[in-house]
Amino acid sequence: MPDPTSAAGTETNGAALIDPLVFNPYDYDFHEDPYPTYRRLREEAPLYHNPDIGFWALSRHSDVQEAFKDNTRLSSANGVSLDPAAYGPHAHLVMSFLAMDDPRHMRLRQLVSRGFTPRRVTALGGRIHELSVQYLEPALASGEFDWISEVAGKLPMDVISELMGVPQPDRAELRRLADLVVHREDGVLDVPQASVESSITLMTYYKEMIEQRRKSRTDDLTSALLDAEIDGDKLSDQEILGFMFLMVVAGNETTTKLLGNALYWGGHNPGQVAQVLDDPERVSEWVEETLRYDTSSQIVARTTAVDIEYHGVTVPAGEKMLLLIGSANRDDDMFEDADEYRIGRDSTNKLASFGGGVHFCLGAHLARLEANIALKEFASRVREYEVDETGFERVHSTNVRGFAALPVKVQVR
Ligand code: HEM
Fold it and tell me: Do the record's keywords include Heme (predicted)?
């Protein structure tokens, strides 16, 4: 039996080793198209080990989904990114339950869920619609525009501001700061300068907002979090701040990238997206297939809390384990012809895109709502569109997948 963790490659009829399988999440060539590597990982090394960088990885749908549920043996408490810098520099500023284990995680998640309710999210639909139209109309009128800077890069952070109750005049500045918080250089967050400074400015702003709301409540999420209570237990200001920061880090860029990936893959599959441009009521099929085919949150990490055996190999306690979400979503064992972008699949309940188990994305409903509304408004105004193949710019990151710039040319109705 071949060594399932082998990074050495495949053997052909006992001949010399050829085409070694190397998985390096920092590699720019890998970012261009990670899917051939994911396929090889699933087929040749379902438990992969890269001792040089220092991680293990699970790539099959069944393994990734099981791992999400295995939150006692696979810990989130040392961060959920391969790159320790991704959350490390901000860790002293915030207490985020994304990177905690139960029972600490569950206490905070439950308290936050008292304020961040499905009903509050659904009630945002009208504002999301207004904002989408406000960004889309001037952009579409110009015929050619950058989808990221005009629409996709604005909507998610403005929706987060709307939720929290940030006054209108401050929102553009908060968007600028949030972009700097996740700014990347060579696939690594630009930690020392802009990122940390922007985090501090953003946190100071939110801190003042919490103090104001403590004195005088409104009907926003910030006020609801101050009032959230379970059996006398309440969130501290620091914990509310942690959640606000988590929304900015986990909910902003991922949704921007989802909107970008939808336009990119629709543009590359005109026959598929035509079904939605002809019938915008089918927009959710476009969103769901994009979430499967090229999801914006590709990789999350865990740390093994104990020795765990996968595919006959024991991974010792204390090791970094990557869960390859992007690969799970392309597993032919779960999705027929998984490498085909096919609008109209019924795959929602099988997607790995929002994680699983106790850390399942708290904002999945909001992300879907935003994408459905914005893309439906786009589809109902656009007859055809194409992506400018020379102008797009991919973000290089070990976990986030999508575009920093995506110029498109549209034919409106
Ligand atoms: C967790 C993906 C949008 C808030 C997660 C996780 C994934 C994910 C994979 C699990 C992480 C883990 O298990 O370590 C995405 C994607 C999004 C998106 C692909 C957009 C397309 C949002 C939005 C918000 C949000 C809009 C809120 C405004 C959260 C929170 C958690 C989380 C709070 C932590 C949950 C916990 O630890 O219990 N997200 N997310 N996400 N997400 Fe999202």
Answer: yes
ipTM exceeding the 0.95 mark: yes
What is the Å distance from ligand 1's center to 281 Cα?
26
Give the burial class of 38: count Cβ atoms within 10 A of its Cβ; 0-12 exposed, 13-18 middle, 19 or more buried: buried
Q: Can you name the residues that pair with 233 across neighbouring β-strands?
A: 230
- CB distance 383 to 274 below 8 Å: no
For residue 151, CA distances in Å to 143, 182, 287, 403 come to 14, 18, 16, 13
Could you tell me the residue ranges of all domains in the chain?
28-412
**Ligand 1: does its nearest atom lie under 6 Å from the Cβ of 359?**
yes
The DSSP 8-state label assigned to residue 148 in this structure reads I
CA neighbours closer than 13 Å in the CB half-sphere of residue 3: 9
Distance 83 CA to ligand 1 centre (A): 17
Q: Does 257 sit in the ligand 1 pocket, CB within 6 Å?
A: no
Q: Is the full-model pTM beyond 0.80?
A: yes
The residue whose CA has the least distance to atom 19 of ligand 1 is 297
Does domain 28-412 correspond to CATH entry 2.40.50.100?
no
Determine if ligand 1 sits within 6 Å of the CB of residue 255.
Answer: yes
- For ligand 1, whether the C-beta of 98 sits within 6 Å is yes
Which residue of 69, 98, 101, 361 sits with most ligand 1 atoms within 8 Å of its CB, as the best mutation to test the pocket?
361
The pLDDT tens digits for 6-36 are: 544 333 444 445 688 999 999 999 999 999 9
Answer yes or no: are the C-beta atoms of 136 and 263 closer than 8 Å: no
Amino acid at 383: R
Separation of first and last alpha carbons in the chain? 59
Q: Which of 110, 67, 100 is nearest to 324 (CA)?
A: 67
Token representation of residue 151: 């629409």
CA pair distance 144, 151, nearest whole angstrom: 13
Pocket of ligand 1 contains residue 355 by CB under 6 Å: yes
* 86 token code pair: 């991704």
Ligand 1 centre distance from Cα of residue 363 (Å): 6
- In this predicted structure, the answer to whether residue 186 has a pLDDT above a threshold of 90 is no
Q: Which of 54, 52, 59 has the alpha carbon at shortest distance from 4?
A: 59
pLDDT digits (tens, 9 = 90+) for 245-296: 889 888 899 999 999 999 999 999 999 999 999 999 999 999 999 999 999 9
- Helix (H) / strand (E) containing 130: helix 125-142
The DSSP element (H or E) to which 394 belongs, if any, is strand 393-394
User: From ligand 1's centre to the CA of 388, what distance in Å?
Assistant: 30
